[in-house]
Design goal:
Length: 96
């Protein structure tokens, strides 16, 4: 991608987390992120090991695209995860 911007999405449990059907939404969330990773939009995604938070790093054209990605996440749209988005400026990263 050229002329992209970086964003971080922080995911936390929302009211539907742990309720019946939420496991399926989390599985859909994972598949959604895998697809976006293959498209080159999700750079990294994972969860913290000692707190119930997740983090998704995006590289997209603009904030609007990042917000749409966040809103279309099955676990976010079904209120299993609460999401917050922040612009991210990469200072150091993988070298070529």
């Amino acid at each position: 991608m050229t002329d992209t911007e970086s964003f971080v999405i922080i995911l936390r449990p929302a009211p539907e987390y742990g309720q019946p059907g939420s496991g399926e939404r989390v599985s859909e969330h994972f598949e959604y992120l895998k697809k976006l990773n293959q498209e080159g939009k999700v750079m990294m995604a994972g969860r913290f090991t000692d707190v119930l938070f997740g983090l998704v790093m995006l590289e997209v054209e603009n904030r609007k695209e990042a917000e749409i990605i966040m809103q279309l996440d099955p676990a976010v749209s079904s209120n299993v995860f609460h999401a917050e988005i922040y612009p991210w400026r990469i200072a150091l990263g993988p070298t070529s």
